[in-house]
Design a protein that fits this description.
66% of the residues lie in helices and 0% in strands. By secondary structure, it is an all-alpha fold. It is globular.
Length: 485
């Protein structure tokens, strides 16, 4: 193969209609389902955990500006995701979008990056869920054996976090029952945690001491931007909505609604909660694992503190549900394209979900959450997400140029300026992360490229030398028995 042919094979692009026409997944979701999926993924660890850490260590009362800055950058990225989702309604999110805009090797890099984001974020969230759940148990005088209460740390006498692994496997089971069932359970839990957040706002506003907002920027503007890079983890989730594309009844219309509505709702709640939280408790006292519940304890509202803890458990459960859902649909899409093992795209006839791949992913995440403490990997998850957002934003410019006549259910206004601002904002927040985070991120990408060149490149369905492959010019055949109506 000549050098030109090798370069061409790396940049081969997937037909835009491939995912929609070759899907075996059941279309069962509407705009309300998508909005609750987005809210379920976004509101959880960020609002119940990261608010306190970011206020105490980075931004102080200026945390409200950190959330506003991160929210604006996310809003630009969300507009870009919405256009892609309405134009390329296929599972895989940023991976699939980059496959149609940039080509296979960039798509693989994005897909491998998102595996990092969804996988490790799920494990970290499971660990956080375990901490809240054990705290709730202790309120009833119950306690797990110390050795099974936390991740592997012989110095502290802990070896396995059994509750983190258990909730991961429970969510895995729920996901294999069917997407509509999972969405229904998610909707109930989202309603509960929204009520809890509104209770905190409605009650907490009467305990605000304006003097706690002084000084408003104790760490300066640099603290606000560092805080924005840290709390960006709190916004991870709206992109997971786009992974549901092949299970949405009317993707061109409903996906943009779900993405934008969920982000708007959560941004408003984040800003209001952070303002009230720093008004109740002096910011330097908020470096705790349960800042929202701690705020009620601080003003002696112990009964409401218990309710907040219960809401936090519910909220974090929905985050885990949607993160793991996004992970399985990403693996499904990459596997269907031939870049990963076929096990991840095998569809169960009964539930019309990739059940086998879901169990494989769920067991791996359960092991990580049980054995390894992943709280310190929040920054690594952030850099992966920011990288994906930047590439998707630039992909809109490429898609507009290469496919000007493509049918779009939603169009980003002021192109190319909004996509450029989105990419610049994401890259800027990436620069605010630690050097070790960058080193680890690049190491992960190198491992991914090795796997691609050893496996994915040769087994790709766009490889013309692969038996039964589909070239870019061929139209995929709609599988028999497809139930998308």
């Amino acid at each position: 193969m000549s050098e030109n042919q090798k370069r061409s094979s790396l940049l081969r692009k997937k037909p835009i209609a491939f995912g929609e026409e070759n899907s075996a997944l059941k279309r069962a979701l509407g705009p309300l389902d998508l909005t609750t999926l987005g809210v379920g993924a976004i509101i959880g660890t960020g609002i119940f955990v990261l608010t306190g850490v970011a206020a105490a260590n980075y931004a102080g009362p200026g945390l409200v500006l950190s959330f506003l800055l991160a929210g604006i950058i996310c809003a630009f990225a969300a507009l870009c995701y919405s256009e892609f989702a309405s134009s390329v309604p296929a599972s895989g999110s940023a991976y699939t979008y980059s496959y149609t805009a940039f080509g296979e090797v960039i798509a693989w890099i994005l897909g491998w990056d998102l595996i990092l984001e969804y996988g490790f974020a799920s494990a970290a969230v499971a660990s956080g869920w375990s901490g809240y759940f054990q705290s709730l148990l202790s309120g009833f005088g119950l306690q797990l054996p110390h050795a099974l209460s936390s991740a592997y740390n012989p110095e502290k006498g802990t070896y396995f976090d059994v509750t983190a692994a258990a909730i991961t496997l429970l969510i895995t089971f729920l996901l294999t029952r069917g997407v509509k069932e999972a969405a229904r359970a998610n909707g109930i839990m989202v309603a509960i945690k929204i009520i809890v957040v509104l209770i905190f706002i409605g009650v907490g506003v009467f305990y605000v001491q304006p003097s706690n907002w002084q000084p408003f920027l104790p760490f300066g503007i640099s603290g606000v931007t560092a805080g924005a890079a840290t709390v960006f983890f709190a916004y991870i989730g709206f992109d997971a909505v786009s992974t549901a594309a092949e299970e949405v009844k009317r993707p061109q219309r409903d996906l943009p609604i779900g993405i934008i509505a969920s982000l708007a709702i959560c941004t408003v709640l984040y800003i209001v909660v952070s303002l009230i939280l720093t008004g109740i408790v002096p910011f330097h006292m908020l470096n705790v694992s349960d800042p929202v519940a701690f705020a009620f304890e601080f003003v002696n509202l112990h009964g409401l503190s218990w309710i907040v803890a219960l809401g936090a458990i519910t909220g974090i459960t929905t985050v885990l549900l949607v993160m793991m859902y996004g992970q399985t649909r990403l693996l499904y899409s990459m596997s269907r394209d031939g870049l990963l093992s076929p096990v991840f795209s095998k569809i169960s006839g009964r539930s019309q979900t990739p059940a086998t791949g879901t169990w494989v992913a769920g067991i791996i995440i359960a092991l990580f959450s049980g054995f390894i403490s992943l709280g310190h990997l929040a920054e690594l998850t952030n850099i992966g997400t920011l990288f994906a957002f930047a590439v998707v934003s630039l992909g809109i410019i490429v898609l507009r140029k290469n496919n000007p006549d493509l049918k779009r259910g939603f169009k980003v206004p002021f192109v190319p300026w909004i996509p450029i601002l989105s990419a610049i904002g994401c890259v800027y927040l990436m620069t605010r992360l630690a050097a070790l985070t960058w080193i680890t991120f690049f190491a992960w990408l190198v491992i991914g490229l090795i796997i691609y060149f050893m496996y994915g490149r040769h087994y790709s369905h766009l490889n013309p030398l692969r038996r039964g492959s589909k070239t870019v010019d061929q139209q995929p055949v709609k599988p028999k028995g497809n139930n998308n109506k």
